[in-house]
Amino acid sequence: MLKQFQSDSILIYKLYFVMKKINIYFIILIFVFGYTQSSCSGFLDLSDPAALTSDNYWTNKAEAESALASCYNALYSQGLYYHYYNGCDPRALDGNGTDDGIAGSAWPSPPQSALSRGNLVPSHELVKVVWDACYKGIARCNDVILSVPKMGSGKIDPKDADRIIGEAKFLRAYFYNYLTFLYRDVPLTTEPVTTSNMPVTKKADVTKFIIDDLKAVAESEALPKKVTLAEKGRASRGAAWALLCRIYLYNQQWTEAADVTSKVMSQQDYGYSLEPDYLKLFSEDGNASNEVIFAVRFSGTAGGVNNELRGFLSTRYNQQYLTLYSVTQSLLNEYYDRDGNPSISTDPDVKDPRWRYNFIGIREEWRNGEQILSGYINKYQDYTVTQKWYDDQDYYVIRYADILLMRAEALANSGGSQTEIESLINQIRDRESVKMPHVTPAEVTAAGSLLNVVKHERRVELAFEGFRYFDLKRWGEYAKLSEFNRIGEEKSHVWPIPQDEIDNNKAIGQAPEWGGK
After folding, report:
1. Which CATH architecture has domain 2-300+396-503?
2. Domain map of the chain by residue range?
3. 396 vs 298: CA distance, rounded Å
4. What are the angstrom distances between the C-alpha of 39 and each of 42, 228, 235, 385?
5. Helix axes of 254-264 and 237-250: crossing angle, nearest 10 degrees
6. pTM above 0.85, yes or no
7. CA-CA distance, 495 to 455, in Å (whole number)?
8. How high is the pLDDT of residue 465?
9. What pLDDT is stored for residue 353 in this prediction?
10. How far apart are CA 200 and CA 343, in angstroms?
11. Beta strand pairing status for 292-296 and 359-367?
């Protein structure tokens, strides 16, 4: 969806959302969004953007879709999927706060050290920007969800209205799930307002709300089963089921998670499949793969070099490594050799092929007889793009391999069939460009359990895709959150509510782990 708003000609317009709290209109959100008018097929095609006001808005489909685009635009905020690793987003958390990576010392962003060096406190920028980004998205979604039904069939076709509302509910569920997993208890609002004077709602209640909401959307026909290539980046029914599975899994509702994954895996309904070429998947050509269920779209050219939709990660320009995250030895050694055995070899011809695809610049040193390994991220670094700093690579929020592994984890935690669990892992290992050995009894014994084999496969398959931090927290493996973590396990369970929120919202209290009652 988002790329079709971009490149040939850019129209910049402003959407003014007037939000009401206790009968006082007090916030105007200004949203600037670039898109390609010639290729958007009417999406966001406003006849007179400068004329938008709170009185004359919500009069036609184009305006409703413009408001929906602002909901998607919130995904590009610092704290979520900004155009590069910014120390605040899901991807950077793997490099800052887990045993997979270490942020480079030259990284300019202050949030870089918050997790890896134990600097997380309520007043830290990291805590604030993630909170603000999510609530910005929630406020915009709430505005759409409340306002579109009031338009009536005279202003918008009911089917178009249902789709717009369904997409807004999908995004709202995403934002709330992200918030609850990090901050646990958070204010729950369905109004387009700030969180001022709102107490927190228990995580279980927030989770039930978004599950019920998202499930209703997935079970309806509001969203298309699967979006077309031209609509990539918009939520589909398949994406709604996939997000619902993630929410169930993150809240240890194993039976429900397993049930929902079976829906996403239906070839008759959705047709998702693994991309045969793992390296191609993480390139511009991979954007169109049937493995991608939901992606945040980016462009390396639309809107100029400083636009917020530019490529999220710089390319390997002139073969230089442009990511400032070092890969840990722990992660490098997680990859088996081609025979399926643990290996400390640095020879890419010996290792699991995903080792070569995911990492580059591997360095090996020996100190006092001990092997020391380090390297850089290669995933999403498109070899075919050499003459521009930013490419048109999308960021995959949910892909089919993750669905298979979520099902495997849910079954492993709920007494599911060992044969099926192994089959799910083996499907991923059977990828044409990977061809790793199937799970064996010896591997299960060495790992300690079949669940640990699932955990291994998640780590090697999904490396640096923004999952490791959340996986470790979900599994209670807090000691692995960072080699240098000085926060302590208790505070690692939950992030503190931002100090600004505490100061400005008298109804909210800090998490007990951070000094609250």
Report:
1. Alpha Horseshoe (1.25)
2. 2-300+396-503, 324-376
3. 11
4. 8, 14, 19, 24
5. 160
6. yes
7. 24
8. 92
9. 96
10. 48
11. unpaired
